[in-house]
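Suppose a colleague, Dr. K., hands you the sequence of a protein chain of 303 amino acids and asks what its three-dimensional shape might be. Before reaching for any lab equipment, you can write down a predicted structure in token form. Begin with the sequence itself:
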Amino acid sequence: MATSRSKLSYARLFDDLRVLLAVHRCGSMTRAAEELETTTSTVSRQIARLREELGISPFVKSDGGWLLNPRLSSLIEAFEHADGMIFSELSRVSESTPDEARDIRIGALPSIISHVLVPAVKELWQERAHLRPVFESRVYEAGLGMSDVALVFNLPETGRLKTRRCGPFPFALYAPRGWEKGDGWASLTDRYSAQYAEARRAWFGSDAILKADSFAQVIPAMHSLGLAAVLPAVMAAHEPDLVRVPGSGLDATRDLYLIYHESRSEDADLRAVVDWICRHLADLPNAAEEFPETQGRLYTIQG
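The predicted structure, expressed as tokens, is then:
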């Protein structure tokens, strides 16, 4: 039975709703516990307590994780907005102590983190020396998760989020010099590349002979084993021994979007981070047309 308003502990409710929001964003109690630096059993206990206080189950278990009970959608949106506003106001108050470090959690593709954002951190510090970027690798995660700001290919269908289009993010087929069609190719694991597997298998005429969890693992395999692979152009630009293979039809460009919660719109630090990210992503060169070092390394397939 739901707790009456007169008996409701708002301090405890706030804490329980914070856990509810974490599970909603993370999709599982285990991941939420990691983010909150507590145990899964504690998260489970607080969700059970919230169920008792509200009189309904906060989540419905599904194959993909825990789905928020639709009856609580408005409640969690209100709490998320309030939580963001409180965080923004605390940040404004802390501006009077600029020497105190402030974490900003940035979720993005590993290739963007390593080849675009990390090299530009000094520029961010010139504007906001007290900020401490906390980079979180995200590949196909949907929504904001526990990040303050995230870069995504697909915009979430729900949530009170602010969005900005950052520009195109190109991928292209690369190979070591001297590679010929039939020499073999590498790929990400099916978790990340299943939707492209058929087209790539048809062009190469064979299955990938090696699969890895990240492009950072694929690239050393390309060098040591002489394999071709589709890579983010921004990573290939830093690999002088890899050349672009034209005419494969496997090149692709995805639109990249930046998202953050609307309650953080007045957060000056977050706005500075958003502008910094978009500035460095807006002019990412095209794989074939704008990388001068890549343009000079186009490879003509033999055979």
